[in-house]
């Protein structure tokens, strides 16, 4: 009933003639029907979240087929105690989880940004905690005095903007005296302009994925993200976004389609970054009578300033946070509390999924083996939900249709590698500023630095008691061109962590060690390395052809939903929002605070 009501309500403004179409649409159902047996391939964030929401809607016959020996996919946490040994977090006497003596090291998903409503809601729903990490991000770049002394992030942004002011690419009005004021004015103007453009291009975005863009709008962004920033006179943001975008492994601004830059850098996220980086600066300038405020006031400035000085309830929520119990814990907790049926070590046979498409009422047949066992298991389901990388679906699904293949075959990906390692103390972490996160901006400027070490995070400083001796950190490398040299990274149908052994590419490991050596980091001991296949996305041409939306509109045909990062964008925020979006679109679910109701 609710299904019909919801669809009806959303179409109510249309003429009465729509009634037939409405009931037809609802009874046709583009998702699993009551009592259907559902198979979900992949128990990463997308698969686990989907199983859990379907259960809330009354679908309990769901089985997750997972290749590895754990749930969580690219949310992978390694817990280490002060001796560097693996540990399990325990409850202390007061019933709280002791996260300080057994520290979560994130090898995959790590942050909750200010716009992450769907994830925050899950954290609340499952009673987990999140904390604001200590502020402070150290930057190395060509603006640093030398290779061994970092700047704060705001100093880096200031240097890059002042560079532009001097060379004339960035405008700063004559009343803005002094570099701090020039930088603030230039940045705030650019942010305001960016946010306006974003709204013009993407409109209101409800579930993180924009509505289908018109041909004209697509043409307007038929360029790289950097070209978009430059052609819209947003130079003041380019230095900052160069690393804010690439640091997440979402590609270099010099090569990635503007579409993906706009998808990730939402006005909400940008405002949050600005607050995070320039809190003190903004506070200084907060004086409604000042010339500065008069010049740049507008809704954005008001919102930011209110958030900073107003102490409103959502100030804390608007900052980047992390999970002291580990990101993976969200998905293991959901799987456990919801009693999800997960099969581990699943190896689906070659073309082992047969949807029997010639008969709409015939079941989906799946043949697989479980690791270490010889017997082939053959099961029947009524509906298939596929969350593993779509680019490889044709290896497992026998009857991939031409329409499906025309979308999946254009998907490209990158590699984002994380390395857990220990070393002698590094000055920029241990000095009085105690900055837990470090970036090297120039390494994120374009493909010529492919595979370089570009960032580091010290989780002990964030979650635990920073130990004075050796430091254990997580380092990052990004590869746009990962398929050179023909090593294992070239196979993008990999799931690191199978069996739990260190899976590392010789090339990535060699490059990592070399970089640290050049930075004079001594006593390096690499413990684990995960070269993740990462950021499944469409190249420019396929974006222009509208493939992202073609997939959305194809959902539910051929007894299948295609979900996960390949369907939208590589983030837990996006994959969960995508799930909620199709649950509403194709099953009429009502979504209240992230909970799905049928
Ligand atoms: C280093 C790093 C940092 C990140 N930081 C953030 C962050 O701060 N914020 C954020 O939002 N996101 C972050 N992400 C991205 C986020 O983790 C992913 O977008 C998210 O995990 C995608 O979920 P998914 O379920 O679509 O895919 P995955 O997490 O990749 O899960 C897919 C699952 O399918 C399984 N599988 C694959 N093939 C098969 C098969 N053939 N048969 C059966 N099972 C199969 C895999 O084993 C895996 O469990 C980060 C990722 C990495 C690697
Ligand atoms: C979270 O805590 C609340 C209050 O203690 C409880 O009612 C609820 O069942 C818990 N949720 C889960 C998923 O455990
Ligand atoms: C996008 O730009 C490229 C050149 O950069 C051009 O060849 C292509 O036709 C453009 N696509 C559309 C849809 O305008
Ligand atoms: C880095 O190492 C080189 C060679 O050992 C040495 O000459 C140089 O002084 C070191 N620099 C710093 C800042 O430690």
From TrEMBL:
Any matching Pfam family: Amino_oxidase
Domain of life: Eukaryota
Record domain Amine oxidase: where: 46-398
Keywords: Signal
UniProt keyword Signal, yes or no: yes
GO molecular function annotations of the record: oxidoreductase activity
Gene3D superfamilies, per the entry: 1.10.405.20, 3.30.70.1990, FAD/NAD(P)-binding domain
Signal sequence, start to end: 1-17
InterPro entries in alphabetical order: Amino_oxidase (IPR002937), FAD/NAD-bd_sf (IPR036188)
Name of the protein in question: Amine oxidase domain-containing protein
């Amino acid at each position: 009933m609710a299904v019909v009501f919801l669809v009806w309500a959303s179409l109510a403004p249309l003429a009465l003639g729509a009634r037939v179409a409405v009931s037809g649409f609802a009874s046709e159902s583009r998702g699993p029907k009551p009592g259907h047996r559902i198979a979900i391939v992949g128990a990463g964030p997308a698969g686990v979240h989907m199983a859990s929401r379907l259960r809330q809607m009354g679908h309990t016959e769901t089985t997750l087929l997972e290749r590895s020996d754990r749930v969580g996919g690219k949310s992978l946490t390694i817990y280490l105690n002060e001796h560097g040994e693996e540990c399990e977090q325990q409850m202390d006497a007061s019933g709280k989880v002791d996260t300080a003596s057994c520290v979560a090291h994130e090898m995959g998903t790590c942050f909750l940004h200010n716009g992450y409503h769907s994830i925050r809601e899950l954290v609340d729903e499952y009673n987990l905690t999140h904390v604001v990490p200590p502020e402070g991000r150290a930057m190395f770049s060509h603006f640093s005095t030398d290779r061994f002394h970092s700047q704060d992030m705001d100093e880096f942004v200031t240097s890059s903007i002042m560079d532009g002011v001097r060379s004339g690419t960035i405008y700063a009005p004559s009343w803005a005296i002094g570099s701090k004021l020039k930088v603030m004015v230039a940045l705030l103007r650019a942010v305001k302009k960016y946010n306006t453009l974003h709204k013009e291009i993407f409109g209101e975005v409800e579930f993180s994925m924009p509505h289908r863009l018109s041909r004209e709008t697509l043409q307007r962004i038929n360029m790289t993200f950097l070209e978009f920033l430059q052609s819209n006179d947003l130079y003041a943001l380019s230095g900052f976004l160069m690393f804010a975008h690439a640091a997440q492994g979402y590609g270099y601004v010099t090569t990635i389609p503007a579409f993906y830059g706009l998808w990730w850098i939402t006005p909400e996220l940008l405002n949050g970054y600005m607050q995070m980086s320039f809190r003190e600066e903004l506070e200084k300038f907060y004086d409604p009578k000042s010339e500065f405020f008069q010049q740049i006031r507008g809704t954005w400035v008001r919102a930011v300033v209110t958030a900073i000085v107003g102490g409103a309830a959502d100030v804390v929520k608007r900052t980047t946070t992390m999970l002291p119990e580990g990101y993976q814990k969200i998905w293991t907790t959901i799987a456990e509390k919801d009693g999800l049926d997960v099969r581990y070590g699943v190896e689906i046979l070659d073309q082992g999924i047969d949807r029997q498409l010639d008969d709409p009422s015939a079941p989906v047949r799946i043949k697989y083996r479980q690791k270490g066992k010889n017997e082939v298991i053959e099961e029947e389901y009524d509906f298939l939900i596929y969350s593993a990388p779509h680019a490889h679906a044709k290896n497992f699904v026998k009857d991939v249709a031409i329409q499906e293949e025309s979308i999946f075959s254009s998907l490209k990906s990158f590699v984002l590698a994380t390395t857990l390692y220990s070393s002698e103390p590094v000055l920029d972490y241990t000095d009085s500023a105690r900055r837990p996160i470090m970036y090297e901006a120039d390494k994120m400027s374009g493909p010529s630095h492919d595979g370089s070490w570009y960032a580091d995070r010290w989780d002990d400083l964030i979650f635990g008691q920073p130990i004075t001796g050796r430091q254990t950190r997580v380092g990052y490398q990004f590869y746009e061109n990962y398929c050179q040299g023909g090593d294992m990274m070239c196979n993008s149908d990999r799931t690191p962590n199978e069996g739990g052994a260190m899976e590392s590419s010789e090339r990535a490991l060699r490059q990592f060690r070399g970089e640290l050596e050049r930075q004079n980091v001594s006593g390096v001991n690499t413990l684990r390395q995960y070269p993740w296949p990462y950021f499944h996305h469409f190249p420019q041409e396929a974006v222009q052809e509208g493939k992202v939306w073609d997939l959305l509109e194809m959902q539910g045909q051929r007894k299948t939903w295609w979900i996960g990062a390949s369907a939208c964008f590589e983030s837990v925020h996006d994959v969960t929002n995508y799930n909620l979006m199709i649950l509403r679109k194709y099953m009429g679910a009502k979504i209240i605070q992230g909970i799905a109701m049928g």
